[in-house]
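In the design runs reported in the main text, the only information available to the sequence generator was the tokenized backbone. The following block is the verbatim input for one such run; it is reproduced so that readers can re-run the procedure and compare outputs position by position.
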């Protein structure tokens, strides 16, 4: 069983819902809206729906797909009129979703093995002519200053994350501990680490004709030490 199928429980999701401020979501959606695409959006994976709900508030038609039953239930309760789908992104190709824009945000890329990730990108390219991929594990962002241990509290949940980089496999291994009162969840997250060049080549192989790389929502160019990678791919 893949790690992410059981990772996103109410403890993990509650922490992330509390950790991301509304201003960050607004800035990310401003970036997306500024691309000037059509109004049909595929959000995969959508998590608890923060991007989907903000896009719907701005008049977009959104389909959100996620594997976490808790996250989808939260999203449905918050915005019952949206098209929420419970399922793995590896099934995207069989869903027949057509959109003007696809989103893979919240640092949700790299969970799959390489072949599955390539197929996922191909499915996104088939579903929409434009893709925004938000990737926090690009080698240029991660490796110059890989943090050892991170401690944070959000949404009444305490989180400890211990980071390790497996050089042989090119994977980031994060040992998470989420604590809320007497409840404790310990899980290990695994993300494949790609350079920006490797990711760009994967996007082109998936069927996109051009790829633009940004270092943040302010549209600054991506480079070594950038906080994150926002890749905009167009067919």
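Verbatim output:
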């Amino acid at each position: 069983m893949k790690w992410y199928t059981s990772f996103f429980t109410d403890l993990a999701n509650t922490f992330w819902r509390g950790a991301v401020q509304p201003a960050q979501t607004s800035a990310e959606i401003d970036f997306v809206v500024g691309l000037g695409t059509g109004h049909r959006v595929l959000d995969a994976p959508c998590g608890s729906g923060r991007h989907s709900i903000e896009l719907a508030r701005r008049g977009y038609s959104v389909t959100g797909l996620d594997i976490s039953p808790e996250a989808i239930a939260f999203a449905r309760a918050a915005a019952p009129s949206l098209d929420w789908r419970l399922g793995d992104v590896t099934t995207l190709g069989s869903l027949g979703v057509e959109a003007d824009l696809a989103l893979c945000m919240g640092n949700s890329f790299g969970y799959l093995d390489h072949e599955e990730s390539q197929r996922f990108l191909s499915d996104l390219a088939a579903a929409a002519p434009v893709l925004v991929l938000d990737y926090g594990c690009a080698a240029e962002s991660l490796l110059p200053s890989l943090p050892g241990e991170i401690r944070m509290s959000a949404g009444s949940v305490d989180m400890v994350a211990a980071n390790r980089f497996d050089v042989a496999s090119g994977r980031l291994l994060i040992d998470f501990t989420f604590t809320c009162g007497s409840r404790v969840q310990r899980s290990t997250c695994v993300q494949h680490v790609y350079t920006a060049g490797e990711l760009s080549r994967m996007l082109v192989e998936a069927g996109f004709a051009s790829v633009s790389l940004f270092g943040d929502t302010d549209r600054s160019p991506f480079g070594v030490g950038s906080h994150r990678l926002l890749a905009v791919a167009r067919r």
